[in-house]
């Protein structure tokens, strides 16, 4: 597996999720399985099958998070020099002339991406088009909906 870029906040969120899965969710599903077994015939026991399915999901997610954390390349954004260049982890304020509005995105790893919170994956078309550019640059990005133009107003390292 290749290196997985993560911000320090993203790595901490994954660690917290892993701890919750191991300390709360896993024991709860084990109790649910034991309780469902106590009801008797497992072939027709919907509670048992639902609990086993949930256990499989939890174990799969634990393995997924552990693999990502073991291969993580954690990037501390606050330690980056403020050069005005768009890099992984930076927050970029853009002007979209088509919509006549400012948009703010932080470029993060895939597991951290949340468009509603303004965090876009480093692998997204917009992020790929912005990486390496500087404040004041005008950028054309090929997105699934067509070519979009932006002006980079500000680059922050928060």
Per-chain topology:
Elements: E1 4-7, H1 8-37, H2 46-70, E2 72-75, E3 91-96, E4 101-108, E5 119-121, H3 125-130, E6 138-143, E7 146-156
Parallel strand pairs: 1-2, 4-5
Antiparallel strand pairs: 3-4, 3-7, 6-7
Large-scale geometry: elongated
* H/E topology pattern: EHHEEEEHEE
Helicity level: 25-40%
Helix/strand class: alpha/beta
The CATH class of the largest domain turns out to be: Alpha Beta
Number of helices: 3
Brief descriptors of the model:
Chitinase A, domain 3, 158 residues, 3 helices, alpha/beta, 2 domains, Helix Hairpins, 5-stranded mixed sheet, 27% strand, two-stranded parallel sheet
Question: Could you explain the architecture of this structure?
Answer:
- With 158 residues, this protein is an alpha/beta fold.
- Helices cover 39% and strands 27% of the residues.
- The chain folds into 2 domains: 4-75, Transcription elongation factor, GreA/GreB, N-terminal domain (Helix Hairpins), CATH 1.10.287; 78-156, Chitinase A, domain 3 (Roll).
- The longest helix is centred in the first third of the chain and has 30 residues, at 8-37.
């Amino acid at each position: 597996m290749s290196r997985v870029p993560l911000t320090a906040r993203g790595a901490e969120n994954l660690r917290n999720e892993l701890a919750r899965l191991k300390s709360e969710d896993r024991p709860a599903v084990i109790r649910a399985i034991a309780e469902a077994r106590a009801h008797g015939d497992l072939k027709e026991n919907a509670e048992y099958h639902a609990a086993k399915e949930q256990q499989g999901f939890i174990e799969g997610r634990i393995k997924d998070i552990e693999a990502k954390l073991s291969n993580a390349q954690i990037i501390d954004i606050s330690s980056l020099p403020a050069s005005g260049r768009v890099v992984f982890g930076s927050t970029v304020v853009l002007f979209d002339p088509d919509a006549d509005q400012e948009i703010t995105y932080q470029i993060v790893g895939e597991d951290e991406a949340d468009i509603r919170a303004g965090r876009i994956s480093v692998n997204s078309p917009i992020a790929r088009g912005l990486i390496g550019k500087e404040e004041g640059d005008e950028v054309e990005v090929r997105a699934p909906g067509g070519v979009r133009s932006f002006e980079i107003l500000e680059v922050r390292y928060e």
